[in-house]
Predict the 3D structure of the following.
Amino acid sequence: MTATERSAEVLAAATSAFAESGYAATKTDDIARRAGVSQPYVIRLFGTKQQLFLAVLDQVCERIEEIFRAGATMAEPDASPKDRLDALGQHFGEHFLTDHDLPRVFLQGIAAASEPAIGANIREHYGQLYDLAKELTGATIYEVRRFFATGMLLIDLTAMGFTDVTADCPPWAAEILTNLSEEGI
């Protein structure tokens, strides 16, 4: 296996571990075990646990950017800003929210924002994603803010395991999911 392939395996293992346990509780030993490598090898590849977490967070945010860009191509050339946002949102739901580790890592990045390097990273990414959504859709500040608010609500629900109205879904989550569905989200 090449160093690039091994690095990708470590990033995948780290994504899973950070999604499950968060930044503070995740140990590089656990990541190494999941990736089938030694803990010193993980450190040799990424330096510190924080640098590894930042690499994972970069990868997650780059994935959101890719999804937004692909979603923008789904809208008709003369589509309204609302229709363009809807296309981004649909693509986001189909390609980001369906991978439960990605939303959880994104939330872990926000939760660990009190760490200076992590806070700077997640704020930078969040701002870039916000600006990208405005650029790709031509939507107003209000429309983009509402899009992000709904997206964060969906990330929260997904992280808690509520993606569909089911028998074990609590009434409050079922109500929110039903309402979102009625709005075409």
Q: What stands out?
A: DSSP finds nine helices and no strands in the chain. The two ends are 42 Å apart (CA to CA). Residues 56-182 form one domain. The mean pLDDT is 94.
